[in-house]
Amino acid sequence: MKDSRRFVIQGIFILVGIVYLVRLFYLQVVDDNYKSQADDNAIRRVIVYPHRGQILDRNGKLIVINESVYDISVIPKKAKIDDTLSFCNTMGVTRQYFDSVMTIATRSKYARGRPTVFLKQLSVNEFAHIQDRLINYPGFFYTSRAVRKYPQPTLANALGYIGEISEKRLENQNYYRQGDYIGISGVESYYEEQLRGQRGVRYVMVNVNGVEKGAFKEGTFDTSAVAGENLISSIDLDLQRYADSLMTNKIGSIVAIEPSTGEILTMVSAPSYDPNLLVGRLFGKNFSELQKNPYLPMYNRPIQAVYRPGSIFKLVQSLVALEEGVIDPQSQFACIKVPMKCHSHPSGHNDLHNAIEWSCNPYFYNVYRRIIYAQSSGNNWRDAPIGLMEWNKHVKTFGFGTRLDVDMPNVKRGFIPDTAIYNRSYGKSRWQFSNFYSVSIGEGELNVVPIQMANLAAIMANRGYYYTPHLIKRIGKNGTPLPQYQEKHHTSIKPEHFQTVVDGMEDAVKRGTVWSKARIPDIVMCGKTGTSQNKKGEKDHSVFVAFAPKDNPKIALAVYVENAGFGGFAAAPIASLIVEKYLKGHVDRTLLEKDFKLRNYMPKPKVDPKALKKDSTGSKPKPALPGFPKPDTSKQTKPIIVSNRTKSPTEKN
């Protein structure tokens, strides 16, 4: 009995001992929490942020570079501050700021042991002021990273900007962490994976005050950061800056493309802003002011603004009609009101060449009518939907009504009407050509984006094909563009149909709807003017597409200037100056250049009356216009005097 009792007691002691041994083994070998906590006291894991890839223009000039900044972080559990007021003065912050950050940093018992960013993006000079004093404040340490800097204040909308990653984007990914920066828009967003590089890690020994004492085990466990890839853009920086100067005090866009490659030579969104505004500690303040600006400088017009194309769309109508066989180059229509009048044609009859040269509205009314009723059965209600969808298929091969895969996010697709829209508006089998004839001259339900207009100019230059427009020509020093930008896209129009249309474009510039001063004496430029109706009831928009030279074209472009009226007298001269600058390297027509740099087509900003309440001084607040010049109302456009023409600049084509 005694032996059995002894065995029981011994068994209990042995069992307790085993439990303690197992627990000790678990704590020391399996569970690394205590080890990690011990390591945190002596070893600090520091993220090494890579340099983001730089962006250069096609000639190797830097467009986007990196600049070092410093974040000051705090581990509340280790923080020790004897004089809070002195600390705030050293850091250049208010006591209110200090209290708010420390409150967030200590919102839970677990947060107290984790680093929280106290100050973000200190410049080199700002950091130098406090670097030596950090040793007096245990628990505070710094991390170096790089932010963007823009040597030239241009291309803001195309390049985009970087910002702190949102909580939503943190979900379902393994690379980014809270507080990381990421491309938000433009090229910075589209090429984020190539630009960001790969983070590194270094482990450093620190003393009880948080002062670094050297690398842990001589850096055995460190990993190096890998810099992001540099991007060689297709932009010609000199041409870009020149185009910017021509769009001062104007709203609109310019897109110029190299037809043989689809490379974008210049992309202007006007008005714009200095991209340096969205870098550094004033990001939030500047972003808010730009968002409130009535002229919408952050609106990327070349890829997002949707307009009626106006008469430039007559080029497409001509080619579709030739392909469908409903007209030939010699087809003539009387230049009489049917139901729209011709604004400029000097004679009563014309063929296709002359109709393009003078942009004859009645001619293209009849052309479009023939396209729609090409499969005539005598029943217009039945034939119109068939003809419309055949026309729709052709037009979409030009890149209209679809989203061009430009290397930027948020590209709009525009709109090409089909049977669905008219069935909703009028009912099935209750509409015909007379319900949408205005589409014949680029109006009505037709909507396009400026990048699509420039692509049309490239198609005309190539006589029937295009490469998707893109901003980046190489990824890395010896790299290539993304595969989709090396694919040739053909329209549904046979190449032989382009010659008559191109000849008409040449004469439109030489002697047709283009203002004589917009002609380049020693360069053959082919173009088409347009005047797009302004839905807001103000002055119409000025449109022009062109390419040059006529043979072996080097540049194709579209210029869109809001509230500027007739295309031949506003958009066309700007386009011709850009063509001359690119092909010759300089501009001989200096008077025209000076004229258009000074022209002001900015409308008065529309401000919500509720926002115009008087402030404490009794004055009304003015709309903020950060980042670009205020509209100069003292420099109004002078009337244009045409020596040998009877047409005024306000006449539509």
Structure description:
This protein has 653 residues and is of the alpha+beta class. Helices cover 32% and strands 17% of the residues. It has 21 helices and 20 strands. The strands form six sheets. Strands 2, 3, 4, 5, 10 and 16 form a six-stranded mixed sheet that branches. It has a five-stranded antiparallel sheet with strand order 12-11-20-19-18, sandwiched between helices. A hairpin with a 4-residue loop joins strand 11 and strand 12. The termini are far apart.
State the end-to-end CA separation: 119 Å
Strand content: 15-25%
Alpha carbon gyration radius: 33 Å
Count every helix, treating DSSP H or I runs of 4 or more residues as helices: 21
Overall pLDDT confidence? 85
- Total strand count, please? 20
Largest sheet: 6 strands, mixed
Low-confidence stretches: 611-652
Helix content class: 25-40%
Structural class: alpha+beta
- What spatial form do the alpha-carbon principal axes imply? elongated
Oligomeric category: single chain
Q: Which descriptors apply to this entry?
A:
cell shape; elongated; Beta-lactam/transpept-like; 20 strands; cell wall biogenesis/degradation; 653 residues
Architecture blueprint of SSEs:
Layout: H1 2-30, H2 33-42, E1 43-48, E2 55-56, E3 62-74, H3 84-91, H4 95-105, E4 116-122, H5 124-130, E5 140-149, H6 156-159, E6 162-164, H7 167-170, E7 181-183, H8 186-190, H9 192-195, E8 200-206, E9 212-215, E10 231-233, H10 237-246, E11 252-258, E12 263-270, H11 283-292, H12 301-304, H13 314-324, E13 333-334, E14 349-350, H14 352-358, H15 361-372, H16 380-396, H17 419-426, H18 450-462, E15 465-467, E16 472-475, E17 488-490, H19 498-510, E18 526-532, E19 541-548, E20 555-561, H20 571-584, H21 590-598
Parallel strand pairs: 2-10
Antiparallel strand pairs: 1-8, 2-3, 3-4, 3-5, 6-7, 8-9, 10-16, 11-12, 11-20, 13-14, 15-17, 18-19, 19-20
Helix pairs in contact: 10-20, 13-15, 14-19
